[in-house]
Amino acid sequence: MPYEATKKCIGLDMNATAVQIGKLIDESGMNDKQLGRIMHLSVQSINKWRHGHNLPDIENMFILSRILGKNVDDLLVPLVPDQPMAEVKYEAGQDRDSALCCLKEYAERLKKMFNHMPNYNLNGIS
Q1: Could you tell me the residue range of the domain that residue 120 belongs to?
Q2: What are the CA-CA distances from residue 40 to residues 34, 65, 71, 125 (Å)?
Q3: Are 1 and 74 in contact (CB under 8 A)?
Q4: Are 12 and 73 contacting, i.e. CB atoms less than 8 angstroms apart?
């Protein structure tokens, strides 16, 4: 995907990427054992990729893309927020309570967005 199409991306959707990798492996007609043998990896490593417990490192991602006849971008699924992240500006003359209210709303949107990502949990932040 060109940069313009993904500039709102805030990271990688790990679960969707695992599903995408599994789907592309299935479409190739190979099973985990065959792919592991080709890549000199264990069946367990391939299985972890399929189920989102782990993703290939950058070198294995590149090798996997070549084996599957795809670009690395075809394996990755970007995480795009449901709502655009609003800019929070403190304008001259704006009262302190109004500015704090805007910041709290912004923080709540960020918490909701990042709590959907498996490696981030911001529930303890207030």
Answers
A1: 82-126
A2: 10, 15, 21, 43
A3: no
A4: no
